Sequence to fold (248 residues):
Amino acid sequence: MGDSLITKVQEAISGASALLVVLSRASANSPWVQKEINSGLLRELEERRVVVLPVLLEECRVPIFLREKAYADFRADFDDGLDKILSAVARITNPNTGRVDEPTYHADWSFDWGTLDAQAWLFRLTLVEQAVDQPFSVLSVTEIVADPTATRHYMKMELAKQGDEARRSIVATVVNSINATDELVLILEGETEVSRAFTIASNAGTYDVRVSARRLGTDTGRDVLYRVGQQLREVLQHMNDVAKVAPE
Fold:
């Protein structure tokens, strides 16, 4: 019974998008809570993203590794504490927008979709990358147009309330195609937009893909190598992380 419970707890922690740690006098002294915190912090180190979200219910001893974290404080104002939890959870449970944080840059992105006509759907990823200590940013747009066959497949999944899964699959198809070729690196030599277009065939149908990017800001006189494949992999990883606990 004990081993079964431990296994279930470990599976829940490893599969969750976030771990809300409720801190009270009782929980702060609980060995079980400490083990859960340690597991969550280990995931943060491995995945390089926020996983543990402390929630302070009353005055208590805060574990040392949580003391520098932002937390939701319910001690004085319940509504303010709840608002902070909802805001923190929203950032990691929305599969269609997010931020990529890397040591040398960060990138904000959003994913949207809609009909082009009765037989084609457009999926679009817009991303703005800002390098550390650089006076410019890069704006990129990846457009994916589904042919009639792929559109019918997508609509079938939408009707079955599996739209998030279908969109992840489309992004994964593009990522896998890029990784199988040249990582899709665009060289930005100036302020002019650079683009590349290609077609991907899959079991669900065919997708016409157009990727464009341009530099915004100060001209440093140096070319910029923009790695589209790397960015799309990060976006797909975010979608997959959210899908671990977000049912269709």
Notes: The helical segments are 2-15, 25-28, 31-47, 78-93, 148-159, 163-179, 228-243. The mean pLDDT is 81. The CA atoms of residues 128 and 139 lie 5 Å apart.
